[in-house]
Amino acid sequence: MPLATLNSRFGLAEQLKFVAGPGGLIFAEIDNDFGTAYLCLQGAHITTFRPKDQDEPVIWLSDYAKFAPGKSIRGGAPVCWPWFGPHATEAGFPGHGFARTVMWEVTASAALASGETEITLALIENEQSRALWATQWPHPSRVELNVVVGKRLKANLITTNLGDSDISIGEALHTYFQIGDIAEIEVLGLGGCEFVDKVGGVNRRTQDGAVTFDGEVDRVYVNTEATCVIEDRRLKRRILIAKTGSRSTVVWTPWAEKADKMGDFGPVVANEGGWRRMVCVESANALENVVVVPAGQNHTLSVEYSAEAL
Q: Fewer CB within 10 Å: N-end or C-end of the chain?
């Protein structure tokens, strides 16, 4: 849909407009009394969010992120759907599914009475996605992302089964949070949870107290609906990550060596770089927590992100 049409149909005076961004991609720019955010229509990808009472963004975007059609963006809140991680049987299929690299369609927007701004996008079969639906996900279904921007960021990832048999989905909001320094934070809320540790060989362990960081971390915590808190001593704040419809939480940092190989975290010099300013705490349904959506029904994964002073 052309920019002029998007702004005519879904733009909101002084709150929401659609703009051309880097790499020829289209973004929704949201700015209200409480917060600001950008959302890329490719992937329905929230790239930034900052409450106006915070000096720093809550959601991190790499200064070296690459913007191009069909390519994932480093940072923000990528949508992983309809599977999380590698495909269960097809090694050639993209990791984390195809939803984050194809165009979504704006279906609604609203200026809410609360002063918040709402936008809804849907991943609908089109010329770009038709082959992906046919070869990688041959199931009649619909996925939508509803986002509300204010002092808090709220997002609902909604999967509707349009077929006549059950479908099984893995999913996540793979959110990168902005922090002062990875070595100076703790993630609370996962004590006592079982997790799959993907670093140094896959094995299962139980979390003892807060999650802290002194090297690469890649963990899938299972069977947990807990709210997580990032306590950030350097920025003197805590980020709260509340969720429903999610039974897994993923915690990830690449650390220096892996970030250097990835190329879109920026240069790693003297153990410094963009990777030190982010941590992923992802609300997900993965491993044994994949979701079965019965025929004709839907499933919603909801998150709410907020920040407060320590």
A: C
